Amino acid sequence: MAGQSANRTKNIVLFGAMGAGKSSLINLVADKRIAKTGSDFKRCTLTWTKYVLSFEGEQYNVFDTMGIENPELEPREYHTAIKNASRLLRALDSCGGTSLLVHCVRKGRVSSALQSNYQLFLEVLYQRRVPIVMVVTCLEDEDDMEGWWTRNREEVERFQIVVQGHACVTTLTEADAKYRASREAVRNLIREHASVTPVLAGWKQGSIVGAFMRQFRLHRDPEEKTLQKKLEVQCSMKTGLASKVAKTIMYT
Predict the structure, then answer these.
(1) Distances from the Cα of 251 to the Cαs of 89, 92, 244, in angstroms?
(2) Which residues, in sequence order, are CB contacts of 178 under 8 Å at separation 6+?
(3) Among 248, 104, 94, CA closest to 171
(4) Cβ neighbours of residue 3 under 8 Å, at least 6 residues apart?
């Protein structure tokens, strides 16, 4: 019976910039405070944190990832965050795969940084194999929270951000009716879009021989070159950082 329950558990990767409200979003879905939020620590999520959430007879492992910032401003932290995300993907591959990506976005102007995060996770790390949804937070001051999406949808699509579903929410418990509506909206979003069949990211681990050859510049995997180019074009990375990140994703 325990094995059957484990098989039903779906892995969800939650990502977004620092301050987007990822930890608060987890507390919203859980309907209790299980994740530490920005008021608790300067940097809440240093690698990733796993939370087990259950609702309506389903169980989900939600992985809260380190906030990924603009590579132009914080290249070292950006590289560290991607290294941790790459390791998380491999860990999830080893235990069945990923069922859903949740892009957490704080209300505000749609930007190239938002696009970069989206492309990094969906197109680079997961190669468009996993369903993705967006949750927009901090909308408690809106009379109609869904109004944000109505006003900004065209701008989101102009940045080539395409998601299978979305929810416009508040994570403030003081918002009462809006808070309850937000909780149900996010739960419905997860239940509807989490893939029944988990997806593997599929990045290969480098062998000892391969690592030796790369160290002494005797060989470079063609996939690494392709990935570096994709990072430069789609995520607007400079060549040096793109090369370092490509190696991280391929071989870390």
Answers:
(1) 12, 16, 11
(2) 140, 145, 169, 170, 172
(3) 104
(4) none
Rounded to 5°, angle at Cα 88 from 204 and 23:
160
Residues facing residue 167 across a β-bridge: 135
Instruction: Tell me the pTM.
Output: 0.80
Q: Which of 133, 139, 186 is nearest to 162 (CA)?
A: 133
Number of H helices, E strands in the chain: 9, 6
For the chain (252 residues), the mean pLDDT of every run of 10, in chain order, is 55 90 95 77 62 93 80 65 82 89 92 85 87 97 96 94 97 91 98 89 50 43 78 77 75 62
E strands of 67-195, at which residues?
A: 100-106, 132-137, 165-168
Q: How far apart are CA 70 and CA 53, in angstroms?
A: 30
